Amino acid sequence: MGKVFNVMKDETNDRPLDIHDYLVKHPASTFFMKMEGDGPEGSGIEEGDVLVVDRSVTAKRGSIVVMTEDGELKVTKFPSSDDSAESSLWGVVIGLLRNF
Amino acid sequence: MVDCNNFFVSCERLFRPDLIGRPVVVLGSNDGVVVSRSEEAKKFGVPMGVPFFKVRDIVKDNKITLFSSNFELYRDVSDRIMFVLQEELGEIYQYSVDEAFFQFTEKSSAVAKIQLTDLKQTIEKKIGVPVSLGAGKTMTIAKYASEMEKRKSGVCVLSGTAWQKLTPQIPLSEIWGIGGKTSVNMRNHKLNFVADLLSAPESFIKEEYGVHGLRLRSELSENPAHQPTEREGLQKSIMHTRSFSKTTESLAALETAVTFHIERAAEELRAIGGKAGSLSVQIQTSRHGDWLLQSGRQEIILPAPMSDTRTLLRYALSLTKALYRSGVPYKKAGVVLGRIISENFVPVSLWDQYEKTDEDALLMNVIDNLNAEWGNDAVTFGRLKKGGQLDHDQHRSPRYTTSWNEVRKVERKI
């Protein structure tokens, strides 16, 4: 049949693909969290998904973020509708892990 | 230098923002001893290094949140901080789990303060652990500086006149490298403050405190005497382990083996010019059959990098006692001295090689007293569960960053 080639193969090296490289840009400031219940509306995040949260990234309008609200960590779209003094940004969700 | 504030507590608070501003205490040594406190817990009078039972009432009455040491979490957070520091600064010299020294050149103290404040904000954003930064012409001064502003702006530069005008007010007991015994000795010689040491005759310093005293004086007069060197040449850990020719159920036999291993490992450590920041002890059963799950391994992070056999031995033996279960046939015992750094940038105690820092002395005192008063089983301060797991870490938080089953759960905002 001829050669089977992987179009995604990195031309610069021959290592097998590593999910970590793909997902995690800043390992020191990246943390994982697990979604309990549904994700924010329109986010595409489902229950049980593992969120890849990066603290070093700047949140933009429309980003999904983890915030501290009254001492609890919550996932929401940025900017959050009620910017109370009790809430602050914890990190930005930059990716998802999901097993089927 | 960079120094994390109440490090273990801060690690817990990273995933528990509800605990910011609340009193928190972290226990170590199998829930026996207080090893970290939040500022609020300090205000309630919880001292460092005391056995838990002594503060049980204070904790209960004030609803202080309690944690067992979650070393995996703390190690991971520490590694992240060191990684970011390295990224920002190039070369750093990690001194302990939550402290690192680095060099930078800046003529103006005011500009230095701005740069360090920037660095502080970067670390706090990227990792979420509050830190203090201190700078001075020498490591000893930098370490003092990091303490000075800890509860205020968190950044302090002490150089030239700024440092010199403080020397008559800084008690020698607060200086890195001066332990309890030495500061008492110094007080007896009318040396109470840094300025006193600086103006004492050199011959007296040399005679009474030796070359280490001279080094300290040099450091305090803004002439560096400690040489941080890269760890590149040093191995990261030293392991000593051996199987027994026949199995043993005797604690004494295990202690003898561990003693032997510590003595050899510590010798090797000193021979390579290193100090260890962590110690772990492992006792293993035979690989077959029912006893497989009864093996035990425990690692502790030492209060400060050290290499003296006596102190290492005391920690190792108390770990051995805590891991030991009677009636179990053990086949192997071993130790690992980890997080090795060069001794060149750790000040040797002025009194003698075996003087410990006050914290360390407190900790060892407590562990020894516990073993003496209550017998071997007391050090665990918990109950030994069937099935081999030591039931001591009752209050340990989830290993948020090292175990998939234990990652932080979050809900969406309503």
Multimeric status of the protein: heterodimer
Order of helices and strands of chain A: HEEEEE
**Unreliable residue runs of chain A:** none
Terminal CA distance of chain B reads 43 Å
The largest pleated sheet of chain A is described as: 5 strands, antiparallel
Categorize the overall geometry of chain B. Answer: globular
What is the overall number of helices of chain B?
13
Rg of chain B, please? 22 Å
Helix content of chain B: 25-40%
Q: Greatest chain-chain interface?
A: A-B, 32 and 25 residues
Whole-number tally of structural domains of chain A: 1
CATH superfamily of the domain at 231-346 and 351-381 in chain B: DNA polymerase, Y-family, little finger domain
Give the distance, in angstroms, between the N- and C-terminal Cα atoms of chain A. 31 Å
Beta strand % of chain A = 35-45%
* CATH homology superfamily of chain A: Umud Fragment, subunit A
Percent in strands of chain B: 15-25%
Look at the structure and give the CATH class of chain A: Mainly Beta
Overall body shape of chain A? globular
Q: Which CATH architecture of chain A is right?
A: Ribbon
Individual helix count of chain A: 1
Organism (chain A): Candidatus Kaiserbacteria bacterium RIFCSPHIGHO2_01_FULL_46_22
Protein name (chain A): Peptidase S24/S26A/S26B/S26C domain-containing protein
Pfam families (chain A): Peptidase_S24 (PF00717)
Domain Peptidase S24/S26A/S26B/S26C (chain A): 10-80
Q: What is the strand and helix layout of this fold?
A:
The complex is a heterodimer of chains A (100) and B (414).
Chain A: H1 19-23, E1 30-36, E2 50-54, E3 64-69, E4 72-77, E5 87-97
Antiparallel strand pairs in A: 1-2, 2-5, 3-4, 3-5
Chain B: E1 2-4, H1 7-14, E2 24-28, E3 33-37, H2 39-43, H3 52-61, E4 65-68, H4 71-89, E5 92-96, E6 99-102, H5 109-126, E7 131-136, H6 139-148, E8 155-158, H7 161-164, H8 180-188, H9 194-199, H10 202-220, E9 238-248, H11 251-271, E10 274-285, E11 296-306, H12 309-323, E12 330-338, E13 341-342, H13 358-374, E14 383-384, E15 390-391, E16 408-412
Parallel strand pairs in B: 2-4, 7-8
Antiparallel strand pairs in B: 1-6, 1-7, 2-3, 5-6, 9-12, 10-11, 10-12, 10-13, 14-15
Helix pairs in contact in B: 11-12, 12-13
